[in-house]
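Morning. Coffee machine broken again, so started the prediction first thing and wrote up yesterday's gels while waiting. Chain of 107 residues, entered below exactly as on the submission form.
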Amino acid sequence: RRDYTKYKLTGDEEEYSKRGIVGAVVAAYLARNPEVTWDTFKRDFPDALHTGGFSRLAADIRDANRYFPPVRLADGNEIVYSNQWGVGNIEGFLAAAKKLGFEIMPC
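Came back before lunch.
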């Protein structure tokens, strides 16, 4: 049985899927923190959030379909982060987002 829970990010009226909320939170995080480096990003979104690792350097990935499009950080590193989210791994991400000050509510 599939879980189709949708999420809202406080201040945004859009309803997001699990994949969508991850993309929205990371985009908002990067907008709030334009000076973020790879080390800081990895600290705030550790690989433990996702079984296959949360993020990678864009040059190191083989299957680009499993990641959001690359983003360039302030230190020049181009990174990608996982777009593979489900009921088994979204809770850890939501908890990490909350620690970073994001308010997310299920719809």
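The radius of gyration is 13 Å. Going to sketch it on the whiteboard this afternoon.
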